[in-house]
Amino acid sequence: MAEVIKVYRESMPEVRLVGRRYTDADRGPNGTFGHLWQEWFANGYFDRLEGLPQLRDERNGYLGAVPQGKEFEYWIGVLTIGDSPVPEGFESVPIPAGEMAVCWLRGREETGELYGCEPYHMCVREVGAQGWAVDPKGWFFERYNCPRFTDPDSEGRVVLDYCFYLAD
């Protein structure tokens, strides 16, 4: 079972998400976007974005991003800074500056326990326990941060960052 091991606030500057936008129609047979992540790695899509000017700290990483409060869309990409051209085959969307809550969710990636409604709501509850409110019209990120997500601990668990823009 996944568990929240850390919750903290983080300031995000104005950035731009560069990647690809997906909808519910793009979900795989199991209802997730895992097959699209496999496509990104198999086709080197992240490699094509590496040269863009990016935040070079733990606020970035490979992202699954969802703008909340509107028709569902799921983005895969990276956060960039500046106005560099968007590579062919990719799209971009501005992300406003703001305060975020970050939850470190630890579990086994291969079981799927880090993904979906249950871990999302677990993290929202933990954010509320801090006295903060998730912005219902803000952005939500799954942040795959190296090495937290890429280097499993001795029990095979990794840490996925769940990030929520906070209401004022």
Question: Could you characterize the architecture of this molecule?
Answer:
- The chain is an alpha+beta fold and 168 residues long.
- 16% of the residues lie in helices and 36% in strands.
- The chain contains three helices and eight strands, in the order ββααββββαββ.
- It has helices at 34-42, 45-49, 117-129; strands at 3-12, 15-22, 62-67, 74-80, 91-95, 98-107, 139-144, 158-165.
- It has an eight-stranded antiparallel sheet, with helices on one face.
- A hairpin with a 6-residue loop joins β3 (62-67) and β4 (74-80).
- The model has no long low-confidence stretch (mean pLDDT 93).
Query: Roughly how many Å apart are the termini?
Result: 32 Å
Category from helices, strands and their pairing: alpha+beta
What does the average pLDDT come to?
Answer: 93
Widest sheet: strand ordering: 1-6-8-7-3-4-2-5
Strand runs, count: 8
Spans of at least 5 consecutive residues with low confidence:
none
How do you describe this structure in short?
This protein has 168 residues and is α+β, with helices and mostly antiparallel strands. Helix content is 16%, strand content 36%. It has an eight-stranded antiparallel β-sheet with strand order 1-6-8-7-3-4-2-5, covered by helices on one side.
